[in-house]
Amino acid sequence: MENRSVLLGFGFAIATGFMAHSGSAIESCPAEPKQLVDQLLGDLPQYANRAIAQTQPRSSGQGRFIVTASQPEFTPWLGQESITQVYFTTLEHQYHNQEQIKQQSFHRLLLTQDGPDWYLVGLYSRMGTDLLAGSIPSAPQEASNSALGQGIQRWLRDCRFVAAGDSP
């Protein structure tokens, strides 16, 4: 795993490492939240970039893709033991008029398990800290239907297929 120190922020700062994408297909769907989220975040750039490609016009001269996702930080969600709450960041490259902008975005992911299956409850994102300009991120927004949210939902769907013995 590649380890880089960066500042995260969802109202606090910590140091973390970014996960390298293995490029492998989902082989199992872990029942344990930490293993599930580690596998999800390793595959997330590939899944989210497919969702971005499906919605982004190719001829616009602009582009966006997710390079990597950070290590997850698990925190209990008060009042709901059935909800797994995870904080993570993404490193993104955006292109506008041939200029590359590196951005870091901050995410709060809520998952729940129903039997062996996992489902997205919510995704809240603070978008777009330009790493070079030192800008501050946006206010948190519900992002379950964003490209990142669609990537998470598709990965969880594929995970359910694998758990059921089908291929995604």
The major sheet is characterized as:
6 strands, antiparallel
Mean pLDDT: 80
What oligomeric arrangement do these chains adopt? single chain
H/E element order: EEHEEEEEEH
Helix content: 10-25%
Low-confidence stretches: 1-24
Please tell me what the overall shape is.
globular
Instruction: Compute the CA-based radius of gyration.
Output: 16 Å
Structural class call reads: alpha+beta
- Would you report the number of β strands? 8
**Number of DSSP helices?**
2
Query: What's the N-to-C terminus distance?
Result: 26 Å
Strand proportion, as a percent range, falls in 35-45%
Describe the structure.
The chain is globular. Helix 1 (33-55) crosses helix 2. The chain has two helices and eight strands, in the order ββαββββββα. 24% of the residues lie in helices and 36% in strands. Strands 3, 4, 5, 6, 7 and 8 form a six-stranded antiparallel beta sheet that branches. The protein has a two-stranded antiparallel sheet with strand order 1-2. The longest helix is centred in the first third of the chain and has 23 residues, at 33-55. The two termini are 26 Å apart.
